[in-house]
Design a protein that fits this description.
331 residues, alpha+beta, Aminopeptidase, globular, seven-stranded mixed beta sheet
Length: 331
């Protein structure tokens, strides 16, 4: 018989409780941190508010349910998003937590009438909830055990050749150290947005304010890496460091520099640094259904991680979406 974990107390978690639980939990990413939630609730974004709940079980085990509350349809309804920007979310489980506690936490989340939750692939206790529709999705990640040389040997011959080509051409990779570096990355991103919009009219993109907020927000965990050629930034990657993994969250490459293959060298050097820092995983993040992007990632020798998404919508929210002419299942 499956044991039952009974929730004895639930209340709002303080910011310190959330942060302490995040630092103490080895199976989570930066996306579970209060800093990430606060980034998306910065001034001017009143529709998003960090929300964490401290849960205490009858056997003394504690956990923090993390996320943000998003106001929808001009405040007529709202939903709980367990992390912002479509990334991993859920909870931070304390010492002694087991499968029964995870099941109870999942059941608690599923009581939310409006919910967006991408399951965390690094927590062995997390399973797709039974009897609930999920959207199957996957991420590609590199296990960094064995050191950089062992990891790099798993990359395809083409990727190894491309990285060497970029290095011979004089491409130099380094971590951003100044505001001007971030501005250089934003210029590369604008070039990429122009290219993407030619093929995908729905691409909206992020504004300069977000990147400035990232630059100032949490320099200990936010890493911007740039590839330079002849004094010009030609590619960049924005990575976020957490207990379980260094995650590649955002990237861009200058179209005019494609022949140099700077992105492959850029990834190689980021992975080298991640190995040196003791990270266990380098996660490329889901690829939004773009098979060419995913194939680029797979050629580094990645493993597939399942990270399905649970989307729940109340009858009220579905009705409001219909009134606005949007599909009821659109998240």
């Amino acid at each position: 018989m499956t044991p039952v974990a009974r929730i004895e107390e639930e209340r709002p978690a303080t910011r310190d409780e959330w942060d302490e639980a995040w630092h103490a939990c080895p199976a989570v990413t930066y996306f579970h941190s209060p800093a990430w939630a606060e980034l998306w609730a910065r001034p001017g974004r009143a529709r998003v508010k960090p929300e964490a709940r401290l849960v205490r079980f009858a056997d003394g085990v504690t956990a923090v349910l993390v996320g943000s509350r998003e106001r929808l349809h001009r405040g007529l309804t709202s939903r709980l998003v367990t992390t912002s920007s479509g990334t991993y979310g859920g909870w931070l489980a304390g010492p002694g937590a087991g499968a029964a506690h995870a099941g109870a936490l999942a059941a608690r989340l599923l009581r939310e009438p409006d919910l967006w939750w991408r399951l965390n692939p690094y927590d062995p206790l997390v399973e797709a909830p039974h009897g609930v529709a999920v959207r199957p999705e996957e991420s590609d990640a590199l296990a960094l055990d064995g050191g950089f040389e062992a990891v790099w040997r798993r990359a395809s011959r083409g990727h190894r050749a491309a990285a060497n080509k970029a290095a011979r051409a004089g491409v130099d990779v380094r971590r951003a150290a100044s505001r001007s570096d971030w501005e250089a990355y934003y210029a590369v991103y604008q070039d990429s947005l122009r290219r993407w919009r030619e093929h995908r009219s729905w691409t909206l993109g992020y504004g300069a304010q977000l990147f400035e907020a990232l630059r100032r927000h949490d320099p200990e965990h936010v890493q911007l890496w740039l590839a330079w050629h002849q004094g010009r930034a030609v590619a960049g990657a924005l990575c976020l460091a957490g207990p379980a993994a260094l995650v590649y969250w955002h990237g861009a490459t200058l179209e005019a520099a494609f022949d140099l293959r700077p992105s492959t060298l850029l990834m190689r050097e980021i992975v080298r640094d991640a190995c040196a820092s003791g990270a266990a995983w380098f996660d490329f993040n889901p690829s939004a259904g773009l098979e060419g992007v995913r194939e680029f990632k797979r050629r580094f020798g990645t493993q597939t991680l399942s990270c399905p998404v649970v989307v729940r919508q109340s009858t009220r929210t579905r009705g409001l979406r219909r009134l606005r002419g949007r599909r009821p299942d659109q998240s």
